[in-house]
Write a sequence for this structure.
């Protein structure tokens, strides 16, 4: 028997009714199939609908059209309790701002999802959490409070927490957004490595094309649909965006008095590697 892909999106749509009674079509028909062990990146400027899409994939929000199949199962047919159970058991989340509970140690944070796990996971929660902390290289920081850890260490704790129940799908929303370049790349490499080990699928949302380049496949979310980053549409959209701000440094810290436009333009190919400038929606 041929296995269904872990995730299958067919003409997936999400629109919202604005107070003006106008309909805002955020996602206009997304088709995507993600297999176990795959790593997909989705890039897009701010306001393009990335978080909306992630909330659908994470069974947090409901689509307004099309289909979302998880392991062949049409999730729109599930009641809230079954969705919550499926989410807890099968999906791990990593956020830009880590979202660790302060006042709880690193170990307690990683143990948290196991409180809702199977009986076996519950009783072995401390051991499993310690193993996961060890896997992300933080066994010696288990008793630290998040506020005493660096940003990179906090994100590694968050990765351990997301993965401790061995989810089949990992959703990362701008996981490197609050980290410096080197730390961000290390965190991405770790996430990718652990996802592969456990044959989980990883979907990373990012505005940084260098982060996206670490995935197997990258798509641009634009005008409510996905485009392979190598497609003509994506190249055009990306070079138009990159034209606003040249390189990573220009985005991170433009030197005082230096207009971004004063920087040398990137070569046309830089569209695939330079970060996307986030513009406020
Ligand atoms: N519940 C909502 N009601 C009204 N507008 C929304 C709602 N959710 C999202 N939007 C709008 O949809 C667009 C996409 O939002 P979002 O998915 O958060 O984008 P991104 O994560 O790419 O920045 C934005 O213009 C946002 O303001
Ligand atoms: Mg967002």
């Amino acid at each position: 028997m041929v296995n269904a892909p872990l995730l299958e999106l067919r003409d997936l749509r999400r629109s919202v009714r604005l107070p003006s009674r106008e309909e805002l079509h955020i996602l206009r028909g997304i088709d995507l199939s993600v297999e176990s062990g795959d790593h997909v990146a989705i890039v897009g400027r701010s306001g393009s609908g990335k978080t909306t899409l992630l909330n659908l994939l994470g069974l947090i929000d409901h689509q307004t059209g099309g289909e979302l199949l998880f392991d062949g199962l049409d999730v729109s047919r599930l009641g809230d309790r079954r969705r919550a159970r499926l989410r807890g058991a099968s999906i791990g989340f990593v956020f830009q701002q880590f979202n660790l509970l302060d006042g709880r140690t690193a170990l307690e944070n990683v143990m948290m999802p196991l409180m809702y796990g199977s009986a076996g996971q519950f009783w072995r929660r401390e051991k499993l959490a310690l193993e996961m902390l060890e896997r992300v290289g933080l066994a010696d920081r288990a008793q630290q409070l998040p506020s005493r850890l660096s940003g990179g260490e906090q994100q590694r704790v968050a990765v351990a927490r997301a993965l401790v129940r061995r989810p089949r799908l990992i959703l990362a929303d701008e996981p490197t957004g609050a980290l410096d370049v080197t730390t961000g790349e290390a965190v991405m490499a770790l996430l990718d490595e652990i996802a592969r080990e456990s044959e989980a699928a990883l979907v990373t949302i990012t505005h940084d094309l260098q982060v996206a380049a670490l995935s197997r496949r990258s798509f641009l979310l634009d005008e409510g649909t996905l485009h392979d980053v190598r497609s003509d549409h994506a190249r055009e959209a990306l070079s138009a965006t990159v034209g606003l701000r040249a390189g990573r440094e220009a985005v991170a810290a433009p030197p005082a008095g230096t207009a971004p436009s004063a920087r040398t333009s990137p070569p046309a190919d830089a569209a695939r590697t330079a970060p996307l400038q986030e513009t406020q929606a």
In short: Residues 181-197 form the longest helix (17 residues). Residues 50-51 surround magnesium ion (ligand 2) (CB under 6 Å). The beta strands are 7-17, 23-34, 39-43, 65-70, 73-74, 91-95, 169-173, 201-206, 217-222, 225-228.
